[in-house]
Amino acid sequence: MASTGRTVGRQRWSARRLEPTDAICAILAAAALARVLLGSELSHPRVQAWTTVFIAICVQAAPFAVLGVAMSTLVSVLVPPAFFARALPAAPGLSVPLAGLAGTLLPGCECASVPVAASLSRRGVPPGPAVAFLLSAPAINPVVLVATSVAFPGHPAVVLARFVASLCAAVLMGWLWSMTGWPLPARRRQHDHGSGTVSGRALATASHDIAQTIGLLVVGAASAATVAAVVPQQLLTAVADNPVTAVCGLAALAVVLAVCSESDAFIAASLSQFSLTARLTFLVVGPAVDVKLVAMHAGTFGRTFALRFAPLTWLIALLASTVTGAVLL
Questions:
Q1: Is 76 exposed, middle or buried, given 0-12, 13-18 or 19+ CB atoms closer than 10 A?
Q2: Which InterPro entries does this chain map to (predicted)?
């Protein structure tokens, strides 16, 4: 019996998916262990620089992450998905831009936009508008724009450029999906928070989203701090000084870091060696396509969708941000 219990326990552990909260626990455990084992080494200038950048990003971004989760929870619980199917016009030329602009009314990170877009698709919204909403909601909502203005004080053009470039990328992808006739097969719900009372569903949604958002914020802040403290400044300067490598490098970094859109502006602001246009690319690409979103898209819409969507979105977001940055920044 004991052997059977251990076998079941191992099976449950092996089947358990890693969650963002695991990252928080791992970083806290590593910090505590480093405090015990390293002691005086923690006073090294690079360690002090890492700590300063990490804490600054977390302290600045956490309130916006929590606010975004709170507003996203209220919208997901109170606004029926069928509303959008009734409100959007039939013509893709109008419905796609309107669906993109609807993202300004629905605060939430990219993790929340995936199940909402899947629900819209299941309830009759055509693929083009659903794709436009999928991309715009986490990129141009009020929480993200306010966070961007706080992260870039004295640069209001960055906020406008982020709005314009993200909306253009969302609308272009929506029109492309409408013209090609590619489907948006929402196979299943990514997260099911049940029916029950409004307060019960709100609590379940908020508890899941806050754990995921804060976990990803911690990972992103740790990554940005590592880049600032460990990567030689000469290398960063060499990459940042070349416009092509700067833009492509931060576009690739956005995919790898996979930071939530409510907090990515503070990480972009910390990369001060790079031009505003390169950092704009980071802000536009990140909410559109990153490693966690590729996994979510494959699980929700299928691998075929993910394989088409990720490279096209990355390229269009890169072009939209580059052109917009050249004009506005």
A1: buried
A2: DUF318, UPF0718
50 pLDDT band (50/70/90 cuts)?
confident
Q: φ and ψ at 196, to 5 degrees?
A: 65, -160
Give the domain ranges of the chain. 44-183+190-328
Name the residue with tokens 């505590």.
32
Q: Which residues lie below 8 Å from residue 294, measured CB to CB, with a gap of 6+? A: 306, 310
Q: What's the rounded Cα separation, in Å, for the pair 324 and 329?
A: 8
Burial of 57 (0-12, 13-18, 19+ CB in 10 A): buried
State the Cα torsion 254-277-111-212 to the nearest 10°: 60
Range of weakest confidence among 10-24, 192-206, 228-242, 276-290: 10-24
pLDDT of residue 143: 85
Can you give the pTM of this predicted structure? 0.76
